[in-house]
Amino acid sequence: MIEGYIFDYGATLDTAGCHWGKVLWHAYQRQGVAVTESQFRDAYVYAERALGNNLIIKPDFTFHKTLEIKLRLEMEYLCQYCSWPADEALFHQKHLAVLEDVYRKVLDITEYSRDVLAQLLAKGRPLVLVSNFYGNVNAVLKEFQFDSMFVDVIESASVGIRKPDARIFKLGLDALGLKAENVLVTGDSFYKDIQPAKQIGCKTAWFKGEGWTDKQYDESLPDYIITDLSQILDF
């Protein structure tokens, strides 16, 4: 019997299972940013590494601010290394267009996710968040009104452990105070969420959306495969 839940945040509660790289690429396409997907992927990886290796994101930064910085880093890379012919005016226009496009979608998806989590809480089931993030996940949770929903928030930047290290999920179990077999871990990443959670004995729900690659995984490993967050209400 499932008595408690551990959730991933990024690409689980905010993009409905779609990898963040794909979310941004589709927004670039919608907003007519004239680069190839290969060029975008290089820019995405560059920006992620820059954010991960430098203290750019402050603990009080909202997601809107974080996304603004991430997109600026990507687009600066595209101008410098990929011959994207954007003058200052075009750069500003496309940066703002992609920013607002993505932020509107995240607002809609997080509202839906909040409703699902509220239904779990109404059943008396405790929730914990376990996330690889930039050090500002609590500010982001407050921004999207998740901040009162979790009994604990375990962020990689704060605890010094990153997924796929299973120890970060063990911290989630400790926060819930429940046996692993009675806890359902839900996440979009097979190797960062599902594999380590199974390693410590948790039930797992793989939120299978559009991935960064076409890699195939052993779909017999997760206990459940979902394509809509509300499906966990039936388990």
UniProtKB/TrEMBL annotation:
<dbReference type="Pfam" id="PF00702">
    <property type="entry name" value="Hydrolase"/>
</dbReference>
<keyword id="KW-0378">Hydrolase</keyword>
<protein>
    <submittedName>
        <fullName>HAD family hydrolase</fullName>
    </submittedName>
</protein>
<dbReference type="InterPro" id="IPR006439">
    <property type="entry name" value="HAD-SF_hydro_IA"/>
</dbReference>
<dbReference type="InterPro" id="IPR036412">
    <property type="entry name" value="HAD-like_sf"/>
</dbReference>
<dbReference type="InterPro" id="IPR023214">
    <property type="entry name" value="HAD_sf"/>
</dbReference>
<dbReference type="InterPro" id="IPR051540">
    <property type="entry name" value="S-2-haloacid_dehalogenase"/>
</dbReference>
<dbReference type="GO" id="GO:0016787">
    <property type="term" value="F:hydrolase activity"/>
</dbReference>
